[in-house]
Write a structure and sequence with these properties.
Blueprint (H helix, E strand, L loop, with lengths): L1 H19 L4 H11 L2 H7 L5 H11 L6 E4 L7 E3 L4 E4 L8 H12 L3 H26 L6 H41 L4 H45 L2
Length: 235
Amino acid sequence: MEYLIIIIICIITMLLLKFAWKIKISDIKKIKEIGYDENLNKITNKLPENKQICAKILKMLHNETVQIEEKENNTASLYIAISNTIFIANIKNTFTRVQTISHECLHSVQNRTTLLFNFFFSNVYFLYFIVICILRLLNQLNFAMIHIFILTMLGVIYYAIRSYLEMDAMTKATFLAKEYMEKTEKLTPEEINLLTETNKVVTEIGIKLYHYKLLFNCVIKIVFFATFNLICTLP
């Protein structure tokens, strides 16, 4: 019965957050439509290639030791703290590419201890979830409620660290991208203002979607494990 209560509480929590943050599927569609807007892409096409943009922004941040690699088969750009490398995904045809690159460059100058902690803790958190699920499947796990509590605490820490890093980069990326575009002198003030204002819209939507996605990833683990235990305890 306690597992069912936990599942219901998790579902209600996510529904309440969805209502409070006004999360809509149409928001995702809106971001994609804006990102691939032809008129905005024509403006950003005046700018250099992605690796050049990345190198210039890193120079602006006084952090030129970062390795830059383009991965055409990647769907998301990311910064890996362990190797101190920025991987740029296939974002050539999106006007948000300058902001996306700015975002990853900002990650590279964040506190290294926090970045490394996030990397290792994220893997430990995921590994713990997999291990307890396997042990429960093999009927080798006792005190399941304690593991649900631990899973919840790990999720809280994971969310706190990850959201801090991402929100810091998200909120600063728009202004860094604007500063870069102004320094290139390849765009008119009007074009820069148009791109910046549109980037702000994307960021505003993106922040609430990311918060929700991050929490959802934590809560779904609890729901999955609780459901697993509920099924296993059925007569």
